[in-house]
Amino acid sequence: MQRGASQVNLAFIAMIVAVATIGGFMFGYDSGVINGTQEGLEKAFNLSKLGTGFNVGAILIGCSIGAFAAGRLSDRLGRRGVMRISAILFLISALIAGAAPGSELFVLARLLGGFGVGAASVLSPVYISEVTPASIRGRLSSIQQIMIITGLTGAFIANYVLAQAAGGSQAILWGGYPAWRWMFWMQAIPALVYFLALLFIPESPRFLVVRGREGEARAVLTKLFGPEAAAAKVAEIRSTLVADHRPKFSDLKDQTTGKVRPIIWAGMMLAVFQQFVGINIVFYYGAVLWQAVGFSENDALLTNIISGVVSIAACILTVLLVDKVGRKPLLLIGSAGMTVTLGLMAYAFSQGVFDASGALQLPGGLGRVAFISALGYSALFNLSWGPIMWVMLGEMFPNQIRGSALAVCGFAQWIANFIISVSFPWLLVNVGLAPTYSFYALSAFVSFFLVRKLLHETRGRELEQMEG
């Protein structure tokens, strides 16, 4: 359905998107804050490398549960209601993680934070897609990834500043507590802002129609698009819903064949391969990675910030291109580019030698090759798979199955994230960087062909036109 530009309340939409994407910021901050705290965790809790991997990856178990629960829970409590719950979980997690006396309580805190991250990861983009016009939906949904990277970069900057102020991540900062604990406590500030901001945005009109609250839905849509468009849109939404029952998991199966709908497999492919290309190794273990190839702790933390700035610039480019070029072309460009840059990193690491202290040294100019390739890889990911996966998951499913489909795809995404992230410390020690990065490069290569075969372009289509 076409709407005149004069009918669209862009100021109101911008305010809603700004609030919703704070969830993306929290997603990024809560995920990235662990980067730079590993040494403090290892010494404070006397952890092995595998134990470190589990403490780092504990949040991802929570994320998988949170993502799975949020999709269906949002069909009952609303998109906005579940986002409010996630904000509270962010706050509680930040306070407990910083104060945890041992690994057990720390893991519990990170699990709680993971529930919030998982919920925000799937609900922020779907909420944005449900309150924005099709013509600019991709652009506005892509802002979610900018906020994720901004949150990651914010965590990197906060960690760097705190470590500098204390003289190291394990040095005492304020109140007799080491800097790494304050790195976690800093999360409480944006978490509180997120909760308060959520008090000022409306519920998703598509959720309201599903729950039979059409008067409220029409009021929200009127404020978004004008009264004439609102009445037509309520009728469109109603027409896409199954009359005899509200959304449920069984809707994910084709009622004729009894098999899982192909669009669910396409969504799961997007979710899993976004992680199999290894991006969160850069997010979670960037400091460890660069120290492993000879960078000092200070230089490694600074490198994280540079990577974050490059990633934000790439996301801004995506915002400019996604509604002009389309989703599928950007995914294909990203897959091809990441195959090359990850391959270069794997080659550089394969030429490394260990010095007397056990640190990996890259000969000649290969350290620079690895660093530039890593920046190129981060830029390509954030031009393509980073934002586009969330854009497509938020818009590619029909109204009837959107909540259930997001539950399944979000769960798959975070399980893949957990497998990749928890395995990295062990792989670093026992297998090496070159074979590990070769696997990420192979995944990027395979993803190119899967995108070509399984995905259909969604640019410019109304959510009510999506087919399952």
- CATH A-level architecture: Up-down Bundle
The secondary-structure class comes to mainly alpha
Ends distance: 19 Å
Q: What portion of the residues fall into strands of 2 or more residues?
A: under 5%
What topology, given as strand order, has the largest sheet? 1-2
Mean pLDDT rating = 78
Helix content: over 70%
Shape: globular
Q: Detail the poorly predicted runs.
A: 1-6
Radius of gyration: 22 Å
What string, H for helix and E for strand, traces the elements in order? HHHHHHHHHHHHHHHHEEHHHH
Considering the protein shown, what is the CATH homologous superfamily?
MFS general substrate transporter like domains
In the CATH scheme, the class would be Mainly Alpha
Structural domains: how many: 1
**Biggest pleated-sheet summary:** 2 strands, antiparallel
**Strand tally, please?**
2
**What is the CATH third-level topology name?**
Growth Hormone, Chain: A
Tally the helices: what do you get? 20
Describe this structure in words.
The protein has 468 residues and is mainly α. Helix 6 runs antiparallel to helix 7 and helix 14 runs parallel beside helix 19 (402-430). The chain contains 20 helices and 2 strands. Residues 1-6 have low confidence and may be disordered. 75% of the residues lie in helices and 1% in strands. It has one domain (10-465): Growth Hormone, Chain: A, CATH 1.20.1250.20. A two-stranded antiparallel ribbon has the order 1-2.
